[in-house]
Design brief:
The complex is a heterodimer of chains A (297) and B (336).
Chain A: H1 2-7, H2 18-43, H3 45-53, H4 58-63, H5 76-82, H6 87-118, H7 124-136, H8 143-152, H9 159-168, H10 171-183, H11 187-195, H12 200-211, H13 213-229, H14 232-237, H15 247-257, H16 262-296
Helix pairs in contact in A: 3-16, 5-16, 6-9, 6-10, 6-13, 11-12, 13-16, 15-16
Chain B: H1 2-6, H2 30-36, H3 38-65, E1 68-69, E2 78-79, H4 83-89, H5 92-123, H6 131-139, H7 146-170, H8 184-212, H9 216-224, H10 229-257, H11 261-266, H12 278-287, H13 299-335
Antiparallel strand pairs in B: 1-2
Helix pairs in contact in B: 3-13, 4-13, 5-8, 5-10, 8-10, 10-13, 12-13
The chains are: A mainly alpha (297), B mainly alpha (336).
Chain lengths: 297, 336
């Protein structure tokens, strides 16, 4: 912590001589980089340690301690995590649930965002009001009524239950993002489409939606990350059906049961973390812009 | 509600053949306008259906449960009026959970905001190279699952906790080994530390976004007027950052008050409710599963607790906004 705080104090008021000042500035800049890099490595240390430990032998796990470098490459940890501990199954569940959430949220919120932003119809303001109010109502312990609805729809103990409930949790935010995006688009685009004889559907699916690529990426990424990492919803909906567990829920149940297979839990952590980190690194521009927009708007 | 009746429940699948000049058809009368905009309702239908079923109805549904004693099986029958609310208000464990949650929030938020602000100020420097690389480094924990992070922390403690204990014992700093997650005070400290680490990235990005709204010319003008770094910070950055800053503080508190995953995975609220936060308390009421309580799940009590807590939080948010407003006003009048 002290390291990071002192990083902010870089570059003191200028020295009397200009050359000395320039020299100091270079030194200050190098120090900044050193502190940021050191702090950053320290910041990511838990991940580096997990990655290294996932390749350690059970003995190496203890003898190496905090040293992230493994004693050789014991890839067998991954094999046993994937097969014996059914992390392969959890992985597929997580991919399916995250993918399903992304599709559902993108379809529902882009269409709604479009008509709320670009068309006028009786009840439009009421709808916007209703959507906004849900942000401020005290969200009680709604999982029980949701559980009842899912049971009523005969979706209990299916992967659909997790997809629909998880997708619903992020709808309002995504709708507002799409509304904001579509409302800033030039009206001439729609007019041009209509002059060319495009129907309402063609205007949306062929013109407006392809033009909202950045927002599709932002909302898709938000949804994907929160679904991949979600813990509470998949925990509740897989309590009686362990085959449907996602990676976080699988990890949680394993630390309770076989709490001696350390290296293999490290391998499980890596399997859980790497895909989402890679997706984030590839698309982070959209994620960061989306967050920034949320706090500025 | 009325709107949904006019909308067909099935979502459209392209449907390019069915042309509809919906957007600007001249409309006479309400019914005509509704008919002209029929596709708007169809497009809105999937969202509204999901929202009403899985967000709006459950909010009211859970409020209804709060008036029953009910273990979650079958339909609730045992109406108890306001008893659940009374029981919660008199439950010492609930108030301890509220206490732990507030301690968590009141430590996490300022520590996190301070580090995030310092980092953001450092990275906002246009001359700094690799700034976006550093931002990614410090942001990365945000995109990872709190549950998996909780498991990793347990793995690290099982390993390095032992070594650290041995080292502390050898140095005669402690008399007996520290049980890292078994001692409630230390466990809460670890939860706070991990909480700061995991969600700091949000605030970093928020602050960077806020700093970028301040035009470069303002800093330029201050430099020409001979303002030093400190004066620039206190007289330009801080006041211009205040609107975004208020939002950041509120978001940080809201997030901290909802802490669940990390606590559930690291300690499950134990030992003996020593790290119980409100959300784990409610979870244990609704689903059981806490070794320390051999009681039946009571969904009604859980609903009452969560509503009670929801009201506490709304009260806290209003208080926060009022406090910020009055501070801003006092500063404004003081300057005039």
């Amino acid at each position: 912590m002290a390291v990071l705080v002192s990083a902010g104090r870089r570059g003191r008021p200028a020295a009397p001589s200009r050359r000395r000042a320039a020299g100091r500035r270079t030194a200050g800049r190098s120090l900044t980089h050193l502190l940021l890099l050191g702090g950053g490595l320290l910041w990511l240390f838990p991940f580096l340690w997990t990655l290294g430990s996932s390749l350690k032998s059970p003995d190496g796990f203890f003898s190496k301690g905090l040293n992230p470098l493994p004693d050789g490459v014991h890839a067998g940890n991954y094999r046993s995590a994937w097969q014996q501990a059914s992390f392969g199954r959890y992985f597929l569940n997580t991919v399916l649930i995250s993918g399903g959430c992304v599709v559902l949220v993108l379809v529902a919120t882009s269409m709604a965002g479009y008509v709320l932003a670009r068309t006028d119809f009786p009840g439009r303001k009421t709808c916007i009001g209703l959507i906004s109010v849900t942000l401020f109502l005290p969200h009680g312990y709604t999982i029980i009524p949701i559980f009842d609805i899912v049971r009523g729809l005969h979706l209990l103990n299916t992967v659909w239950a997790v997809i629909i409930v998880q997708a619903s949790s992020g709808l309002v935010f995504a709708t507002f993002l799409f509304m904001g995006y579509f409302s800033t688009m030039d009206r001439q685009i729609e007019d041009a489409a209509r002059v060319d004889g495009a129907s309402f559907h063609q205007t949306f699916w062929r013109v407006m939606l392809p033009l909202s690529g950045p927002m599709l990426a932002t909302v898709g990424l938000f949804t994907c990350i929160s679904a991949w990492n979600s813990f509470f919803i998949p925990l509740v909906f897989t309590l009686s059906k362990p085959e449907l567990r996602t990676l976080p829920v699988g990890m949680y149940s394993f630390i309770g049961q076989n709490s001696t297979d350390w290296t293999f839990l490290c391998a499980g952590s890596v399997i859980s973390l790497v895909p989402i980190v890679v997706i984030f690194l590839l698309l982070q521009r959209y994620f960061v812009n989306g967050l920034a927009g949320a706090v500025k708007g | 509600m009325q709107l949904l009746d006019t909308a067909a429940p099935k979502p459209p699948t392209g449907g390019r053949g069915a042309a509809a000049p919906a957007v600007t058809a001249p409309a006479h009368g309400r019914w005509q306008r509704i008919k002209a905009a029929r596709w708007s309702y169809v497009y809105l239908a999937p969202l509204m259906a999901l929202l009403l079923t899985f967000v709006v109805y459950p909010i009211f549904g859970s409020l209804a449960y709060a008036f029953y004693r009910w273990n979650g099986i079958g339909s609730p029958g045992d109406y108890v009026g306001l008893d659940n609310f009374r029981q919660i208000a008199h439950d010492a464990i609930f108030w301890r959970a509220v206490g732990h949650t507030f301690v968590y929030a009141i430590v996490v938020v300022p520590v996190q905001l301070l580090i995030a602000l310092v980092l953001a100020l450092t990275l906002n420097n246009r001359k700094l190279r690799f700034a976006s690389f550093y931002r990614t480094l410090f942001f990365l924990p945000v995109v990872t699952s709190p549950a998996v992070v909780g498991v990793i922390v347990q793995l690290m403690l099982s390993n390095f906790g032992d070594s650290l204990n041995r080292w502390l014992l050898d140095a005669h700093l402690i008399g007996r080994p520290v049980d890292w997650l078994g001692n409630p005070k230390i466990a809460l400290g670890i939860i706070i530390l991990v909480g700061v680490w995991q969600t700091l990235g949000y605030n970093l990005v928020y602050f960077l976004a806020g700093l970028q709204t301040i035009p470069e010319e303002v800093y330029e003008a201050a430099r020409i007027d001979g303002a030093g770094r400190l004066r620039t910070f206190t007289h330009i950055t801080v006041p211009l950052l205040r609107p975004v800053g208020l939002m950041i503080v509120i978001l940080a508190f809201i997030g901290s008050f909802q802490v669940f995953d990390l606590v559930q995975v690291l300690t499950g609220g134990g030992p003996y409710f020593g790290t119980e936060v409100v959300n784990t308390y409610i979870y244990h009421l609704a689903f059981g599963g806490n070794q320390a309580t051999a009681t039946e799940p009571n969904v009604g009590l859980a609903s009452a607790a969560s509503f009670f807590y929801g009201l506490l939080l709304i009260g806290f948010s209003v208080l926060q906004v009022l406090l910020f407003r009055s501070l801003a006003k006092r500063r404004a009048t003081g300057r005039a």
